[in-house]
Amino acid sequence: MRKFILFLSLISLFSCSSSNTDPEVIVVTPSNLSVSATVVGADAQNPNGDGSGTVNFTITATNATSYKILLGNGVTKELTDGNLAYTYSTAGTNTYVIYVSAYNSGKFVSTSITIKVLVGTSLVWSDEFNVDGAPDGTKWNFQTWDPGYVNDELQSYTSRAKNIKVEGGVLKITAFREDYGKGKFTSGRIESNGKFEFTYGTIVVRAKVPTGVGTWPAVWMLGGNIGSVGWPACGEIDILESVGKNLNQNHSSLHSPGRSGNTPDTGIIKVPNSNTEFHIYKANWTATDIKFYVDDVLYYTFQNSDKFPFNKNFYLIVNLAMGGIWGGDVDPNFTSSTFEIDYIRVYN
C-alpha cells in the first residue's frame, strides 16, 4: 500500500511540474483591418452598379483568423478567407452601412463602410432605339396635329424623319422653325397608348434635352382611360420635363382632379449640362408613393393612395413642344434643336 501511494504522489508531482513548464499562449488582437466593396457594373454613368445588386467584398487584417460581416440588410456572414460576393435583392437604389469584425480567438477589431447599390427588377418593356429609321411601330404610335391643339403650343407634330427618327442608337426628335401646315414650327410626338400600358414599376430614361428658349421636351405618362374620363381625371405623371428658358432644371409633376395645371405636386432639381450630356431620369411608382430621381439622386417623393388616379394602367409619351403656356415665347434666333433619348426601360 505504501508503494502504491508513493507511486501516485510521484505521478502527481511530475504532472504539476510539467504543466508549469508549458509556454503561455498569447492571443494577439487583429490590426490593420481593411474593407473594400466593389459594386458590379459601377462606372461613371452607373455609379451604383448595373442593377444586378452584386457587391464583391474584400476584407483583410493582420493576425485575423476569421471575419464577420453585417451586410446592412439583416444578413450576417462569417468568413475565413475575407472574400465575399453578395447579391442584394431589394429593388431600387439603396444605401447600406456595412459592419465588419476581424477575430483572433476571443479578441477582435471592427470597422464600417457605407455603400449604395442599384437593384433593378425584371425588365418588362424597353426601347433601346438601336435600329435606325422610324420608331418601332410595334411599340409607338405617331401623334400628328396642328398648332394650338393642346397648351397653346406652336408646333405642328409630324411623322417625317426630319422631325423624328432613330439614328445611331438614339431617338432624335428635332424641332424646326419652318412654315408647315398652320404653324411656324414642326416637331415630333410618339405614345405607347394601346401598345404598352402598365400599373406600377420603375421607369428609367437616359436623355439629353434640346437647347433654345421656347423648347419644351418631356417624357411622361397618361392614364389609359383618358378616352372615357378625360384629363386630368385620368391622371398624369411627368418624369422628365424642362423648358429652354430655365435650362438645366428638371420638373417631375403629377396632375389629378383639383391638382392640375399649376399643380402643387411637383419636384424640381438642377441638372447641370442637361443639354450637352446625357442624364438618367427615373420614377419608382408604387401604390404608396412615387419617387423621382436624376442620376440616382432622389429629389421628390409623392405620397400615393387610392384617392388619386395613379393606381391603374398608364402609357408612355415622348415629345418636344415649342412655346405654349409653359414653354413661352420662342427665341427669335431659334432655328432648330434636338431632343435625344438613348433608352426607355420599364421594370416591374
Please give the count of helices.
3
In percent terms, what proportion of residues is strand?
over 45%
Largest sheet, in brief, is: 10 strands, mixed
What is the average per-residue confidence, as pLDDT, rounded to a whole number? 92
Oligomer: single chain
* Helix fraction by DSSP (H/I, runs of at least 4): under 10%
User: What is the rounded Rg?
Assistant: 31 Å
**Low-pLDDT runs:** 1-19
> Could you tell me how far the N terminus lies from the C terminus, measured between alpha carbons in angstroms?
88 Å
Report the order of strands and helices: HEEEEEEEEEEEEEEEEEHEEEEEEEHE
Sheet/helix structural class: mainly beta
Tally the beta strands.
25
Per the principal axes of the C-alpha atoms, what is the gross shape?
Answer: elongated
Explain what the structure shows.
Strands 8, 10, 11, 12, 13, 16, 21, 22, 23 and 25 form a ten-stranded mixed sheet that branches. Strands 9, 14, 15, 17, 18, 19, 20 and 24 form an eight-stranded antiparallel sheet that branches. The chain has a four-stranded antiparallel sheet with strand order 4-3-6-7, with no helix packed on it. The model is unreliable at 1-19 (pLDDT under 50). The relative contact order is 0.15. The chain contains three helices and 25 strands. With 348 residues, the chain is mostly beta strands. 8% of the residues lie in helices and 49% in strands. The protein is elongated.
